[in-house]
């Protein structure tokens, strides 16, 4: 029999498959490049169209702009989301892109009409 990526031994001495991102002793390992991460929406500001996600693997909260959400226009605070970590050269830190777990546009749209042009939504 070949290796099966066993990390721990469960009840009755049966090997348990290793969880992704775990090193077999319960320690978090860096995810391979291109791997999706899971996190919880820490806060979301509808009128500005951005928020922050707390990654499950620890580390700093990640910025997320509404344009990075693949299946909606906003995120719900406290909800679980999946995303890709990308490095923002301009800001010098990681951010969340290709986010899934989003929600439709909030009722009434984004913004309160205080932007340029006086209309609703972003900038108008």
From TrEMBL:
One of its GO terms (molecular function) is nucleic acid binding. Residues 89-124 are annotated as: Disordered. Residues 36-101 form the CSD domain. SMART domains: CSP (SM00357). Coiled coil: none annotated. It holds the Pfam family CSD. Residues 108-124 have a biased composition (Gly residues). InterPro entries: CSD (IPR011129), CSD_CS (IPR019844), CSP_DNA-bd (IPR002059), NA-bd_OB-fold (IPR012340). Signal peptide: none annotated. This is CSD domain-containing protein. It comes from Phaeocystis antarctica.
């Amino acid at each position: 029999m070949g290796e099966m990526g066993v990390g721990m031994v469960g009840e009755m001495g049966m090997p348990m498959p290793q969880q992704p991102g775990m090193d077999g002793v319960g320690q978090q390992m860096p995810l391979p490049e291109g791997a999706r991460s899971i996190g919880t929406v820490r806060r979301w500001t509808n009128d500005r169209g951005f928020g922050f996600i707390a990654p499950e693997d620890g580390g700093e909260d990640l910025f997320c702009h509404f344009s990075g959400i693949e299946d909606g226009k906003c995120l719900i605070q406290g909800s679980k989301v999946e995303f890709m970590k990308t490095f923002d050269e301009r800001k010098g830190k990681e951010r969340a892109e290709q986010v899934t777990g989003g929600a439709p546009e909030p009722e009434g749209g984004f913004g309160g009409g205080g932007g340029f042009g006086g209309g609703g939504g972003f900038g108008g």
